[in-house]
Each structure stands twice: as C-alpha cells, then as structure tokens.
Amino acid sequence: MSLADRLAAARAEAPDSLETAAVPDEALGRRAGLAGAPDRIEQVKEAVHVELLQQLGPQLYDADLDQDQLDQRVRAVLADVLAAQERPLSHSDRARVTQEISDDVLGYGPIEPFLRDPSISEIMVNGAHSIWLEQEGRLVPTAAHFVDEAHLRRTIDKIVSRVGRRVDESSPMVDARLPDGSRVNAVIPPLAIDGSALTIRKFAADPLTVDDLVALGTLTAQARDFLDACVRGRLNVIVSGSTGAGKTTTLNVLSSFIPDDERIVTIEDAAELQLRQEHVVRLESRPANIEGRGAVDTRDLVRNALRMRPDRIVVGEVRDASALDMLQAMNTGHDGSICTVHSNGPRDTLARIETMVLMAGMDLPVRAIREQVASAVDLIVHQTRFKDGSRRITHLTEVERMEGDVVTLQDVFVFDHAAGFDGEGRARGRLEATGLRPKLLDKLAQANVTVDPLLFVTGRP
Fold first, then answer.
1. Which domains does the chain have, with CATH numbers?
2. Residues 386 and 392 sit within 8 Å (Cβ to Cβ)
3. How far is CA 201 from CA 107, 120, 128, 132, 207, in A?
4. Residue of 453, 400, 451, 457 lying closest to 434 (CA atoms)
5. Quick one: what percent of the chain has pLDDT higher than 90?
6. Is the peptide bond before 190 cis (omega within 30 degrees of 0)?
7. Most buried of the four, 56, 231, 271, 297, by CB within 10 Å?
C-alpha cells in the first residue's frame, strides 16, 4: 500500500471526535491545535509516524548510533514522507508535525518541550489528558496531553527501561531517572485509578552553586561560611525537610565543600547527585527482578560502602532501616558523612531517625538509639518550601548531647519569620544567627578548621 493510500485509510478510519484545542502562544510550553483542520493533521501525524517506523525500523534502537546521528536520520525521513503527501501542509504545520513526531520518536512525546524549558522545575502527568507544571514555584495547568493511556504507558516504559527498571501490574510503582539525572516516579493502574501518573522533578543542566543559593535567599553568606567550615571539618551533617523543599540541591552544594583529595562514595535509590570532585564512586540500589529476586537496597549498599575505603559517605536519602547502618558508619570513624531525611523540623528529624532504626528489627532500647544519634550527628540543616514557592534553609541546629533521656539541640541560625510577607506574599525574613556559640567549634578546631566568631553575632547584614 502506498503512502497516499495509507493516508486516505487513516483519514477514513480516524474518529470524528478527535480534537486538539487551540491555545494562545503565550501559554508557555502548551501545544496549540494546528491551524486548519485538527482532525486532518492528527491523521497525517499518525500516517507519517507509521511510515517513519517502517523506514527506520531497528535504527531507532541501535546503540551504536549517537543521539545527533539518530536525530538527523529521523528528520531526513520525516522531510521525505511529508513531501510525498497528496495535500501539502503549510510551512508552520509542517514544522509543528515534524517537531511533535520527533518528540514522540526521539523523546518523551508531549512532555518533551517542558523537559527542554529551563523555567519548569517539575512535570506532573495525572493521566493521559491532564498535565501540570511547576514554574517559578507555582503549579500551572497546560493544554498538552497524551493521545491515550497507551501512549502515556509507552512513554513511561521508554523512560524506565533505559535505566534497567520495569513497571507492570506485578510492579506498578517505579523510581527512575532521566539521562540528565532528573528524578522520575511512575504509578500505573490498578494503583493509579484515573490513569497512569508520572512525576518528573527536573535537575538543572548547570547545578546551582552555593553563591546561587545565597543570591536566591536560601541561606545567607554567614551561614554559607559556617557550613563550609562544618563540611571541611568532617562533621556529620543531616539535611532535612519536606518533599520538594530542595534537600538534594542543598546536599549537592554541601558536597562541593568536600576537598578534592578525598574519596567519596555516594549511595542513592535513583542516581541524581551531581558531585564535581574527581574521586567519586556512585552506587545505586536495584529493585527485585520479575521473579522477585536480586534486590539490592540502600542498607546493603551502606554496609558495602564501609569496605570501599571511603573518606566520605553521602547517602541521597535515608528512608528505612539503612538509618541504623548510617549511624554505625558515623560512629565508627567515617566522619564527614552527609545524608537527607524527610521531616518537619530538627526535633522531628531525630524522631524520624529513631523510628527508622527501629525498622531494622533490632531490639534496641530507645535510650541506646538516642545515644547513638547524639554521638553520631553533629548538625541538622533543615529546609522548608514556603507558600510563595521559595525554598529557604530555616534552621542550622547543633546536636549536642544527652540530658537524661532527651537529646539536646541548639539552634545556631534560625529563619526570622517575624519579618512577615510583602504585598505579593513573598517572605521578607532571612536566616539569622541566634547569638549562641556552637560547641562544635571545639571539634572543628581539632580538625584545624577555624571559624570567625563574628559569624554568630546577631543582626549582621
């Protein structure tokens, strides 16, 4: 059957209800309906897509072809196929069809433009016909959509298969990552009732530096200098906060203070840390295979990392019984470890660690666990995402010692909420020193790291 015959057949069989809504160009990243007859354009896209797959076939999955070569071949075949149509498209329609089919074949379909847009930090797909974005800290809807559930599932499969993961009815949830390190989570039916849910948290191609965080107001220059000294002085640091608070970005920034002559072992569920040092060993956990075997969890990797002669152990996120092994590592000479924990505040961080240690199944008294925590953890960096979308470090809290059955904490820097909000709802406050001299300065002095005492004076600009 010729291309013209296939086009005619596609037009005859295409449902009349297929429509693409027209959206103003200023709505960022939205796919507008093509000018003219939307039904006809969709039919053309379908037929051209089929012809493209027939002509290129296995080349689309050839591992020896780099992305640029594959992109050139796809666009060359697209140009030939579009030129052979019996009803020519306008230049703008041709460009749009070419881009959308390229996105489907080479990228991730309708979400590909959002992945290219640096102003978008998160993409949330709630079923085939609902896509939301986080832009400048706020959620906005978009008119882009997948053709149907099958189209969305193919996109999810393409993402997870590239990192050796799978998602199906026996394993309907998956954590994965894109080649650039962006974090991906997918949930499919029957767990997702209204269609598959796909969430992508994008990472900047150029990671934020500590000076960027100071410029954004996430922390102050005084807090920056204090954290720099703490990391160089090999203190054990926990970065805490809620989902989306910016913990991983802060962890990346803290790791930038680690000297280049140290061996760093990173442990993650899905590799997303972007360390710039030369001597870095990256480990990633692995889920069970289709037979339910072969799983390697974070706890296994933490135990194995102790045998790898690490100077620093950086754990992307402690969320289970691996907290026990992490505490053991911090208490057995592996100073300078950094990890993240989900919590609502510094005190809640300690409670979360206690709970996760108990998940290990060890029959340990709570007091023994707290003594381990007080001995292992030196500093808690707590981060919060505010209503205005900004992400701020709200506490730099020293973990001191046990007093009775309670671990005592001392705030070194605290966010000033008393400053209120401006007319647009943005927080006016900043991270301020409490005026208290942290006891960990003695430990830093033993590591030959000095800290300017003026950092802890209140009211400094």
1. 1-106 (no CATH), 107-203 (3.30.450.370), 210-456 (3.40.50.300)
2. yes
3. 17, 9, 18, 12, 14
4. 457
5. 38
6. yes
7. 231
